[in-house]
Amino acid sequence: MFPRFVWLFFLASSIATALEDHGFNYNGFKNANLSLDGLAVITGSGLLRLTNNTKQMTGHAFHPKPFQFKNLSSNGSTLSFSTTFVFAIVPKYSDVSGHGISFVIAPSRSLTGALPSQYLGLFNETSNGNPSNHVVAVELDTIYSSEFGDINDNHVGIDLNNLRSAISAPAKYYLDRTGDNYKNLSLISGQQKQVWIEYDGLEKKLNVTIAPIKLPKPQIPLLSFSHNLSSIILDSMYVGFSSSTGTILTSHYILGWSFQMNGQAQELDLSRLPKLPRVGPKKQSKALTIGLPIIIPVFVATIISITFFVIRRKRKYAELFEDWELSSGSHRFSYKDLYIATKGFRDKELLGIGGFGRVYKGVLPSSKIEVAVKRVSHESKQGIKEFIAEIVSIGQLRHRNLVQLLGYCRRKGVASGLVYLHEEWEQVVIHRDVKASNVLIDGEFNGRLGNHEHRCFFAFGAVLLEVACGRRPIELRASDAKTILVDWVVSCWSRGTILETADPNLGSDYITEEMELVLKLGLLCSHSVPAARPSMRQVVQFLNKDVPLLELSSFGFIAGSLTSGQEGFDEFVSSSYPSSDLINYLGSSSVAESLLSSGG
């Protein structure tokens, strides 16, 4: 009996030793003998905290013993390995974060000379990209760094001796095997997430999968990278984590970690993982406990009302994002936040005045970060092309002596104002003077058009005809038939030659159907009967080709009759062409020429 007990004891000891030599499983890190440096510590609750709210620092945590990664009996190829861990990135402010976390396989536990900030505590300016590093890392990156070719500020990447990832993808997880259905993840949400990293030594393929905690492992990995790691990984290597902080305060946590050579890493016992520290002050109120039966119904009703209001308001005032905004990597701020940050763009907060506008000092309301806000003035010659170029170029610069571009703000308020005034207010109002000086900001900081009256569609039709024909509404030096632009266009339309009125400077460089649509729509907006003119919503539908434009003959057009006693024509002429300006007007160039010469 005694020999059998001794044999079983030695067998159990051998199995435990083999497990320690080839893998481990930490459900929390109490009593874990990890190799730590920098800011990395193990908290009293068993959390592995790689960084805290200290700026420009690094934190490293490695398993104390190296693992044999190569099969010495064969050709020295890299063995299969598997690891899984649960992490959380908790920024001090919800809308901005410091840098991310990386799982690391390295020849040493000491990453000497590694820099914080965008280098993630892995490399420095000299060592980055050096083949002698022999480092394989999987980064969970939360800062956009153009110098490393980052795709955005929320991605997962595989790094081989270099922070320019060999492959990367936005953080997300797949819901089925098709790869068509997925959900995006925010790495800086402060919520716990689980990562699986697996290398198949036979297929030479490295897979990376991520999902929220307590969800099963997705069937399709986020990254699948075919590459032979034998030239990078040495015989003996250490495994661990690296993280760093920049100027934004962020804490990085590892809650559990399992690793296995030549096999599948053990599943983590999620019920045994330590809890994350509470973020924000703990609220305690006796009044809340006493009045709970009354508060709950009121609270629920309030939440429902607020939710309905927020959803309705978001749909109504949703801002459109263009392709260049999605690929620029810069954060887009709301005008309301910048208005509050600069105290309403007060002169007291003014830092300076430049060629394109004014620069104000401000403090972002959510993160309390001090910023400089450049407000482009209406008098500025800077157009949308220059604005985009500035955002993209400055957003890619990273230097210790340069102010970092945190983001930008762009609104579509004027276009929204036209539709709002015409369709979405309880009283129909038509704007007569669409220009920059009449764009106002309401109590909700949305663009609104000021100085509006009840009759203006003739002016809108005149603008369409001016742009399409390259002529002023009245050309006194022209022949009698061409003196009044709208009558000339009607005359050509009645003869079936409306395209003869197109701006000759355009040549044939336009789409015939679109030119004809604009000309006819300009005539329709200039109809002598106000009731026959389309609404602003109908104009947008016609231009977008959502609704076909009917033949003008059905509206009773007669050549030479549009300006005869027409409501709005006399007012348009008197407001647009004062007698003192007629001489200067006759010598001015056409609208189309102005647009062409200005690059519009």
Provide structural commentary:
- This protein is of the alpha+beta class.
- The chain folds into 4 domains: 2-265, Jelly Rolls (Sandwich), CATH 2.60.120; 289-316; 323-408, Phosphorylase Kinase, domain 1 (2-Layer Sandwich), CATH 3.30.200.20; 455-597, Orthogonal Bundle (Transferase(Phosphotransferase), domain 1).
- The chain has 14 helices and 27 strands.
- Helix 8 (457-469) runs antiparallel to helix 10 (512-525) and helix 9 (485-494) crosses helix 10.
- The longest helix is centred in the middle third of the chain and has 25 residues, at 292-316.
- The termini are far apart.
Summarize the entry for a quick read:
This protein is of the alpha+beta class and 600 residues long. The protein has 14 helices and 27 strands.
Sheet/helix structural class: alpha+beta
| Count of discrete structural domains | 4
- CATH architectural arrangement of the largest domain: Sandwich
* Span of the ends, CA to CA: 96 Å
Helix content: 25-40%
- CATH fold-level topology of the largest domain: Jelly Rolls
Chain-averaged pLDDT:
78
How big is the Rg? 33 Å
Q: How would a crystallographer describe the biggest sheet?
A: 8 strands, antiparallel
Tally of DSSP β-strands: 27
Estimate what percentage of residues fall within beta strands.
15-25%
Low-confidence stretches at least 5 residues in length (pLDDT < 50)?
A: 5-19, 413-455, 572-600
Provide the CATH top-level class of the largest domain.
Answer: Mainly Beta
Shape: elongated
The number of helical segments is 14
